[in-house]
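INFO batch 0412 | record 1 of 1 | parsing
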Amino acid sequence: MSRYTKGKAGCASQHVNEGDEIMGIFASILRSAYKISGAKKAFCLPEDELKKVIEKQNRNRGVFTPTDHKAHYETITVNGFPCLIVRENEKPSERAILYFFGGGMVMGPDKGDLPVMRKLCRETGCDVWFPFYPLCTEHCITDTYDMVYECYRRMIGLYGGGNVSTCGFSSGGALALGIAAHNSAQKNPLPQPRHIVAVSPGEVPWNDAEKARMQELNKKDVAIDYAFMVTVEKFMRHGCGNVPDYMISGSRGDFTGVGDIHFFYSSDEVLYGALPDFEEACKRANVPYTAFARPKMVHCYCMLPIFKEAKEDFAKIVDILKK
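INFO prediction complete | emitting tokens
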């Protein structure tokens, strides 16, 4: 059972409350698997040990070139980094999605992202651009923004204003939002995204209330530990001094001019504690938004559309992006 409320800016917010739904068998198994794996413990490690874990993970991650024939693929170079374009046909579509992988800005993508890209492409009728953006293990977050914003600029040039949306999960969700904030900070901004879909977007907590919410949710989260939300700032800055606040904490950015913004969370994850600040940012910018939170799910569950709850919520994302 879902519940809607209206914000002062006429913004709809949808939340599924704890106890509203019974968790499916697969979702329950997935949650238990996270608990048993102890993956959350890695996020509590001291910086040097965490770096070793990240390096090990990244050995099997990074740039990939699809070899199947399930879509039309093209790889271009943007600011010295690859960007994969997924299309149904060789000819570009009329609309496109700039899609960002997650990984806390420190871990690269894997080929498991490809079926989701194809599914988004096929079901929305949009081309999907997938930048292999610079990671903060070797780069400042400003380099990341330079690359992804150049992707966005090229997309606006190809598809036109009002025909490009952004979507991402976890830190990729933060970048999907960050494109709009970064665009607002330019002297000559481009048209803003038509839609933004942010799945479990994170940020470094920047006020006491947000820190308290995340710390409280840490008891329920089986995947991400609050400690990482503090540690990651050092990675993101990478020794750089003048990093804009919105690149570290996205809710401090200006989303004015975005068509609409849609948030998807598990209500039992640490990053859900950032939602009230993102909602306030939407209200400040007078941008319509929806927020959907499903209980007892794992971090970014709806980007794994192979079980009931994930399929239902991925379908909602498709409906938004194909409008």
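INFO post-check: The longest strand covers residues 72-78.
INFO record closed
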